[in-house]
Amino acid sequence: MSNYIFKRGEIYYYRRRVPEYVMPYETKTIVKISLGTRDEKEAMRKAAIYNDYIEDYWRSLIKADGSADPDSRYRATVKLAKAHGFAYKSVAEIAKAPLEDVVQLINP
Q1: With helix as H, strand as E and coil as C, how does the chain read?
Q2: Is the pTM of this model over 0.85?
């Protein structure tokens, strides 16, 4: 995993070349994401999360022959949000909440 982490200035980044077998399905050649941390251990943890997400995404592209399945993209996005500690709520759950709670979500 440390192969995909580099430090620019004080901040760690995840950087990975798109594998050759994914190139027919992916428009990018390199994936680069700021990990938003100066702590190496936290960077390693976040990079592992991103790496899992990206691998899942690439698998879904290959499986769907280049067109990402919306359901698998949705599940991967929810998984990534939960991995980052966000309590994911569907639109239906938000719509059932009191208006004051919804407004609080928009304007914390």
Answers
A1: CHHHEEEECCEEEEEEECCHHHCCCCCCCEEEEECCCCCHHHHHHHHHHHHHHHHHHHHHHHHCCCCCCHHHHHHHHHHHHHHCCCCCCCHHHHHHCCHHHHHHHHCC
A2: no
